[in-house]
Design brief:
The chain is mainly alpha-helical. It has 2 domains: 96 residues, no CATH class; 50 residues, no CATH class. 45% of the residues lie in helices and 0% in strands. The chain is built from 7 helices and no strands. Helix 2 packs across helix 4. The protein is elongated, with a radius of gyration of 20 Å. The structure holds iron/sulfur cluster (2 copies). The site of one iron/sulfur cluster has 11 residues, from helix 6.
Length: 155
Amino acid sequence: MQEENEKDLTAYCGLYCADCIHFRNKHSELAGQLKESLEDADFQSYANVKSPFGSEFQHYDSFLIVLEALMNHSCSEGCRNSGGYSTEPCQIIPCCREKGYEGCWECGIFETCEKFESLKPRCGASVMHNLREIRENGFKGWSKLRKPIYNWQQA
Ligand code: SF4
Ligand code: SF4
């Protein structure tokens, strides 16, 4: 991998964007096709009628919320260049930029920084591993030593 690509795909927080479940994914496109197909069939009208046949469809509105989220959570470039795709603004990107850091690995307090709280439920282990890896061994080629991105993928 070229160093330039590695940097583009390394988020300020130390996550590797190519590992993210939303990055260039297939499911967003499929979700869009499914929504279109359901609209063509006017499935909403069918679901609106209470009936013993298909009582599960009483949850159709909730299903559409998830379906639209799947459609919208897609990105094709790393958050370093795109600015991130979270529904809530990322606090880490502006913090690094204001300080002139390439990433939080340059910051003396990343181990205790509160801005990582929102990442912990899904990516807590990989974020800290990656930041320590870059801080201790340098940036070049670091991604070969990264951990799987999600907590449930950890060995
Ligand atoms: S948007 Fe923020 S928290 Fe999300 S990957 Fe990029 S730097 Fe990390
Ligand atoms: S305070 Fe340091 S560790 Fe926290 S987001 Fe800003 S640069 Fe990253």
